[in-house]
Amino acid sequence: MKTVLIGLGRQGYRILELLLQAGIDEVDIFDIQKDRILKAEKDFGKKVRPLEKNPLALEAERLAETLAEYGLVLDALPSTLSYRLMRAAVEAGTKMVSVSFLEEDFMSLDKAARKTGSLVIPDCGGAPGFSHMMAGYSVNALRGAEKVIMKVGAIPAVPEPPFFHSLTWSVEDLLEEYFRPAKCRKNGIHLAPDPFEDIEEENIQGLPLQSFLSDGARSFLANYPKVAWVEERTLRHHGHMDFMKPFQEVGFLSRDAVTLGNQKIPAFQALAAMLEKSFPGETEEDRFVMQVEIFGKNGTHRHEYNMPFNREHQVFGLVNSVAVTAVEAAAMILDGTIDESGILPLELLGQEERFARMSGAHRDQGAMVTLEMKSVEC
User: Fold this and answer.
1) Which long-range contacts (CB under 8 A, 24 or more apart) does 309-318 make?
2) Are 90 and 136 within one domain?
3) Are residues 199 and 313 in the same domain?
4) What global pTM score does this model have?
5) H or E stretch covering 329
6) pLDDT band at 259 (very low <50, low <70, confident <90, very high)
7) Domain total for the chain?
8) Residue 81 has pLDDT above 60, yes or no
9) pLDDT 10s digits, 278-301
10) Using 50, 70 and 90 to split pLDDT, how confident is the model at 222?
């Protein structure tokens, strides 16, 4: 199946590595930064073929025609660029795996995707992504649930002041976690509070942490409307939220425009540039941890997950988790294990065989993946 990967940042590059390791002979690639293309050509030779033209610069109709040439499109773009690509893939009737943390309602494309025969797996990363598959698997296994709580976070192995965090993926997308309304559902009521309004103390896998509500429940809210309580909480080391709070108070955690010289840019982009300069984090080891709990009348499930920093390949835990999820989803599309059409986030693909394969793929890359189940005694 002819395959194209668009976006070669940290996550995209790791996806490319794993795709080629999985046996895909050739992958067409594109990134706006030429140095990333040159590095891929140096590392992988004739296994990669750079696109001659920037697909993102094409008009909508021409972009759809270009994507129609491919059986599989992998999207590793920043969130602000992804929706247009996804819509074009739907129009083209092709298959797509997207790891982008886009803000738009991708489920609105479901009807069109079913009509064209397109399959899109959005939010196909670690969290949202594998976290949603865990939750979907358990809701189905328990024959319903009353509460789903997903606690997730990419955190430094050794937090250093004053930031107490590390920058392991798109900094602009990271900052969106702090100001996007944290859509959730509590006692059947849809809410969207400010992420800073609800900070809690946590102990996850022996780690003393803090958590805040974030916009990670996303499509799970729509696809499991009978679950009365659904929330995602982002995990951070102590000290980090205290560091970030003043930026919120002075307006840097927003899309409001600030003027720099003769240019106006969103405030959070200015902050992203400042943080990248001050805390590049290239040599910091991280870990990506998740605890996903599902409570139902028939029992409870608790998923625990920990992907450490990969020292052999110098890959961040979060980056590896995202890439493993995306590549295993792609593999299941290629071998026919996933063969539906429509917009299908991973909570809708958590059937036994698929969940087992995804869990195994993560374990093969060094992750701890466990599931504790407790039944309700009659």
Assistant:
1) 309/157, 309/285, 310/365, 310/366, 311/285, 313/17, 315/14, 316/10, 316/154, 316/168, 316/169, 316/286, 316/288, 317/154, 317/168, 317/286, 317/287, 317/288, 318/126, 318/154, 318/168, 318/169, 318/286, 318/288
2) no
3) yes
4) 0.94
5) helix 317-334
6) confident
7) 2
8) yes
9) 887 655 799 999 999 999 999 999
10) very high
Contact by Cβ (8 Å): 272, 175: yes
Query: Whole-angstrom Cα distance, residue 89 to residue 93?
Result: 6
H/E element holding 279?
Answer: none
* 291: phi then psi, degrees, rounded to nearest 5: -135, 115
The enclosing domain of 57 has a CATH number of 3.40.50.720
Give the tens place of pLDDT for each residue, 166-187.
888 788 888 999 999 999 999 9
Number of residues that this document lists for the chain: 378
Confidence of residue 148 (pLDDT cuts 50, 70, 90): very high
* CB of 124 closer than 8 Å to CB of 325: yes
Here the tokens at position 11 are: 């996550």
From 100, 121, 142, the end of a domain falls on 121
Structural domain boundaries enclosing 268: 130-318+362-375
State the DSSP string of 184-225. EEETTEEE---GGG-EEEEEETTEEEEEEEETT-THHHHH-T
